[in-house]
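Minutes, methods subgroup
Present: GH (chair), OT, SY

1. OT presented the first of two proteins processed in the latest run. Sequence and structure tokens recorded below as shown on screen.
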Amino acid sequence: MNSLLSKLQSYPFEKWRFLIEDILPPEISHISFGIGEPKHRTPDFIKQALSNNLEGLSIYPATIGSSTLRQTISNWIKRRYNIEVNSEKNIIPVNGSREALFSFTQAVVDSLPDSKVICPNPFYQIYEGAVLLAGATPYFINADIEKNFSCDYSIIPEYIWQKVQLVFVCSPSNPTGSVMNLEEWRTLFELSDKYNFVIASDECYSEIYFDNPPLGALEASKILGRDLTNLVVFSSLSKRSNVPGLRSGFVAGDEKILELFLLYRTYHGCAMSSSIQMASIAAWSDEEHVQNNRNLYKEKFQTVIPILSPYFEIKMPDAGFYIWARILPEYQLSDTEFAQRLYAEHNVSCLPGSFLAREANGENPGKDFLRLALVSSIEECIEGANRIANFAANLR
């Protein structure tokens, strides 16, 4: 077996199951804020597009995807970011952003001695696993709570930058909901130009926002007068269109990198089914269902945050569907203890923040936080928030 597998940690949800395995919760309905799996209804027109094109199951699809799908994605990028992206050279359809983030890392990282990959902290655990199995070492940079959970790249030493091959960015962030601003992008682009590393921008939450559309990496690059050198963006339909089981997304960016990534993918065996492609074309072509989706999330946040804010250090995220709630010191409970007792006493599950981060520079930046995924119905979210508020009130 690959010896690098021994470096992988358990996934956060496995840690959660171990944390509660001996607990028998009260006999009331279970409410889960744990897994970030969209629960809103999949639009009928997407399901219809899938069922109308089942003949696609009888053919092998091309790894590059159909020209129609790539052009549809290019059209969406144009509408969303006002950017022209060549559908023939700068876009590859992928089976969801998770698959692509992992395989991209294997294709990009050259496992030279002491190769580094920068990861935000807290983070989406696929980054770490992909880096370790590519033979490199993750270098975590802690989100700064005083700066809207942004990452301060200026604190990374010169000798580290000289070994960096790839930098993961998650904007909007999972779990904090923060969005990178233009000056942060300027700094990262300048560092990439200086040290010649690749930027992988994970933007799968880009369409779940409440006021202004989040700035994307492609958009920032254009505004700053930069080309797409060493930049690849990852996007997905899962959250945008409530189709996590469709496993459909795209990568877009640097033509030279994508050319070699496509070569890797021809061996990787991950071509998207033609039937899925047709459903994806329908989804990327429509915005009304996306606006309706945003409105549902906005309503939930506007209702739930006032219930929880008296009991946590909490704020409205820039985007995404997570609440990143800081546990007050007066409760005298760690994040794991809080989550464990909440489940045991109120049958509500959420993820301890420390499960979503690693210790770096002497601290775990997820410690004393809870991640709440507002993916269920508004009624369930309100009920769950009230149970959490009651639990916290009793602790006082």
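2. SY then presented the second protein from the same run.
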Amino acid sequence: MYTSTLLALVAAAGTALGHIEMSQPPALRSRFGADKSNVDYSMTSPLLDDGSNFPCKGYHNDDPDGAPVATYRVGETNQVKLEGTATHGGGSCQLSLSYDNGKTFKVIESIIGGCPIDKVYDFKIPESAPEGKALFAWSWFNKVGNREMYMNCARVKIEGGTGQGFDKLPDMYVANVGNGKTTQEGDEVAFPNPGDNVIYGGGAKSAKFRS
């Protein structure tokens, strides 16, 4: 009995630490958040390949008016922090904002290649971002392994933005979730429209966009 219980605890710990998840800002239902009543200990798992829990693993619908876990002011340097060990050879990530509770996401930064091998990435909120509550999303397409999309979301507050021109930012890239787009195994995705704020790493110079 003791041995089986111990093995179960070890397995659970492995699930929590495997793959990658966003720890700052703490994602919806994250073990890093203040609310411990409804934690997803498999936060590091990818989105379902049929797209049924896109976006945000569906957690954005739990409490659409939930309190922000972070406040970001336009132009200031902020950090997104990631946790976990299974980086799948890297890949490409995006940071995005949604003001309509996940119906649309606009990219504020693309990290092409080598993501999430580094666990901390700087970003700035663009001046065009409207003030008020928003969903902040980290999304990732792994280089090695099954063709998957990873995504964590957090409720944040944006201060100091004008809201002018935000709709002209590129849409978040979406693939591997039953929408007809699939990334190529072994490639670090070069997003078709990464936006103006781009970080390059890994094998990005040789990466090719594939739909």
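Chair's summary of item 2: The first strand starts at residue 20 and ends at 24.
Next meeting: continue with the remaining queue.
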